[in-house]
Each structure stands twice: as C-alpha cells, then as structure tokens.
Design goal:
The complex is a heterodimer of chains A (286) and B (272).
Chain A (H helix, E strand, L loop, with lengths): L3 H21 L2 E3 L6 E3 L3 H8 L3 H31 L5 H10 L1 H5 L2 H11 L6 H8 L13 H29 L3 H9 L4 H29 L3 H7 L10 H10 L4 H33 L1
Antiparallel strand pairs in A: 1-2
Helix pairs in contact in A: 1-13, 2-13, 3-8, 3-10, 6-11, 8-10, 10-13, 12-13
Chain B lengths: L1 H31 L18 H7 L2 H34 L5 H10 L5 H14 L6 H25 L3 H9 L4 H12 L1 H17 L2 H6 L8 H11 L4 H36 L1
The chains are: A mainly alpha (286), B mainly alpha (272).
Amino acid sequence: MTLAPTFIFLMLLAIYPLVYALTLSFYGEGGEGGAHIFRGLQNYINVVKEENFVSNLKHSLQFCLFVVLLQNILGMSYALLLNANIIKNKYKNVLRAIQFLPWLLPDAVVACIWLSMYLPTGGFINTVLRNLGLYNLSQNWLGQRNTVLFALVLAESWAWYAFFSITYLAAMQNIPSSLYEASVIDGANKGQIFFYITLPLLKPIILTTSTVQFIWLFRYFDLIWIMTRGGPAKATETVATQIYKYAFFNYKLGESSALGGIGCIVMLIGVIIYLYFYNKAEKSRG
Amino acid sequence: MKIKYSKGFYIIILAVILVITIVPLFWMIVLSITPKNLLFKSVLPVVFSLKNYISVIGDKKVMLAYRNSWIIAGSVALISVFLGSLSGYGLSRLKFKFKDHYILFILITQMFPLTLLVIAYFKIASNIGLYNSVLTLALVDSTLTLPFVTMLMKSTFDSISPALEEVAMIDGCSRMGAFIRISLPLASPGLVAAGFFAFLKGWGEYLYGLTLTGDTTARPITVELGIRLGHYATAWGEMMAISILMSVPIFIMFGIFQNNFLKGFTTGALKE
C-alpha cells in the first residue's frame, strides 16, 4: 500500500488539526476558574455580530476578485505574446523564465520589495512620479483607505501572474493549429481569432484556474499581514487576518476558530464551484 | 501594413509587462548596494557598496534564521518527494475503488483556512513539546506541498509505460524492486520538479514559522525579515540584502532545474 503513508500523514497533520480547531469553535472560557465549557453556537453569533464582520468578508472577496482579474489579464497577455510567432524561440525561453522570478520569491521578500516601492518619500513609485512632474499623483499608497487594497492587489498579482501565464500557454499549445488555419482562410483577423477560437477553447481552464486561485487567495495571509497588518484603520482586514488577531492578539480561541469555521464554509462553496467547472471541463474534453 | 501595426502593439504590451516584472527586482538590488546615508536619493544606483551585505552576514540572528530555513526547506523537499512519489505511484498504477475519493481527499486538504489550522498546530505543538522546533515546521510545511507533489508524481508515472516494470518483474524483480530500479530513475525529471517545488514552498513559508517559533532556535528567515520590516523599517539597505540572500539560492536552483520544473509544473497544473 504505497498510498497509506500520505493518507496517514495528511490525516494526522491536516484533518486532525482541522477537526481540533473546529471543535474549539464550540467551546469557550466561562466555566468556574476559567474552565472550558460548551457554548454551542455562541462563538459564531459573537463573530457574526462583530461590527467589522461584513467589511472583513468584503475585503477578502474584493482582494481575491481583483487579484484573479489582474492575474488573468497579465497572464493571458503574456501567454498570447509567448504563443505568437513574432518572437524568436531563443528569446522566448528567456521571456518564459523572467516571469517566474517574482513567483519564486518568498512572500516576505515580495512584501519587503513592495513596501519600499510604495514608501511615501523615497519610494520608487513616488520618486518616479515626482521626477515626471506628476506631484499630485504621488501619495501615501499604503497609508490611505482608497489606495491600500489595490496596492496589495498589484503586489500579489506581480508575484503570481506567471502561474496563469504558464497554464494558459500550455493550454494554447494544445489547440490544434488546423483551427487557426481554417479561420485564417475564412478571413478572420487576430482579434476575431482570439475571441472566437482561443478564448472559448480556453474557457474551461480559465474557470478552473481562476477558482483554484480564488480559494487559495481567500485563505491568504502572509503578504497582507507583513505589508499592512490589516490596516490602516482596518481597510485591509480580511477574514484570514481577523482569525489570526482573534487567536494571537485577543486570545479568543473560540471566536477565532468560529470565524475559521465560517471561512471553511466560504471555501467549501468555492470548492463546489470548482468541481462544477472541473467536471464540465472534463466532459468537454471527452 | 496591418501586420506591422499589430507587431508594434505586441511589443508595447510585452515591454510594459516586462518593465512591471523587472523594475521591483531591480529596485531590490539598487537598495541592497546603497549605504544608508545615500538611500532614496535616486531610483538608479549611485554607488556600489557591500556594506549592507557585510552587516547582514555579521548578524548572528539573521544567519541562524537563514540556517533554519535551509534545514526546513530541505526537509520539506525530502519528506514531500518521499511520500509524494509513493502515493503518486500508487495512484498511477493501482486500480482500486476509492481512487477518485483519494484524489479529492488530498486536494481538499489544500482548501482549509491556514490561519484556522495554525490555532490547532499551536495548541497541539505546545502540548506535546514541539513548539519552537524545526521538525514541527518541516512537518506542517509538508502538508502544503504533499498534495501537489502527489499529483505531479502521478502524472509523471502516468507517462512511464508500466510495460517496462512488467518486463522487470518477469525477470524476477519484485514490485518494489521494479519501482526502485525501473520507474524511479525514469521519473527523475518529475522528482526534481517535485523536490524543487517543495523546497520553494518550505523556503518561503511564513505563517507557520511566525506562530510556531519563539526565537532563533527554529525561526525561519522569512519571519526574521518580517520582524525587521516591523521594527527597523528604516534599514532598507540591510533588508534588501537579506532579501537578496533569500532570492539567490532559489534563482540558481531555478536556473538549473528550469526545464524539468516547467514541464512538470504544467502537466501537473493542467491535470489538477
């Protein structure tokens, strides 16, 4: 049984801790001498009643949505460029490798780089804007509510668009060239070829890749935490950072795991959507 | 005429994406070679100084954390490749009833909120005395890589004909012998890709390192850098030097394993 070790490993180190944490979500301090007592759904009620609950959920979903959108745009453009015949093959290999450099970096390094890019004085972006004479465009990117979320989205998309690009490129190369030849004979231009052939054929992989990425981003913590700690004024507080704060700042393990339980439900919805797209893609593949 | 226009259009978009990709990396290098008193005078390098690197290498905390990261990432790679090639082989070769369920099971383990799991890890590790240990980090980090590594190894073994093993088994090899002598060597490109992927994840992991370590006994370099970003947010040159120390090994490995990795990665990603 070669399958057993991995199964046991994941049962012990992923499933058991999950069950353990979810059990905590029904308990809380409040018994005599601070003993743990069963509180039913009280932790869940507390968490949902918390005034920031809806806005935290909104920030999480906004972050996921914008990152997935931007990564799709960057990844699709780059894949199209690499798939086009205008670049010589030896350059293509270099271009294919370059996009992976940000992807290879640890999140802590990505955060370090972008924190310094966004610095209000001396940061790369503001310095360039000022040198171009665009003084009123330069601002405290991470310090104000209306720019901070998008600043994080840009940093995260920068780090991960290669994942989309390489997936789409591989899918494009699987499209039979006879389809393109036929459409050229029919007089289609490049835009038409993209929108009527490439895009519809890539639709299954776009949907599955985007959903997977959405789920991963929903549980994402590192970059947001290092760059903003959920601030300023909770403008980038997400479900993930709030779970962490409940547990390690407020020492409310019950509330923390209850919010985690709610996070699980959101992710479960994501997984169901993913499986739906995945099965549809499998069917269309035959 | 039309073709020329679209070629120019392509090249502009390509240039924009390349600039977005490269500029932040360039900025990291510029800051790392600029001494503190000259920082942020220009977006281009003004001097070339190794001062930041020297001070970082002389910093005991940084070096301990750096060592921990090597141990953790190396262990994650070994654990993931060992377990993942076994399970990937099983999924590829064996026929059994619950195969789809098994795959679904390992994929589902990738869908839990990490900050929720970390509460349990923290409590369990504290209870059994494994808080602040590189072993704990190596084990919990491996849960992040094992599912992908399993799928990657499955598709690798799928591409190797079982007939080769059957021949070896006719010649008197056991199933395990055939696996070790025939399939494993043929699967080495996939093994390399899987090992590199797992190393990369272990190398970059932050959240578990943040919550399951208390000091430099086990703290990985990602967490050390994160702490400095909070505390000494002016020493940008040194922080970029640390970032470079964290980037160079993986860039070198990527340079060596690139082809294997990209091939494994796309087959794995497409089938996932």
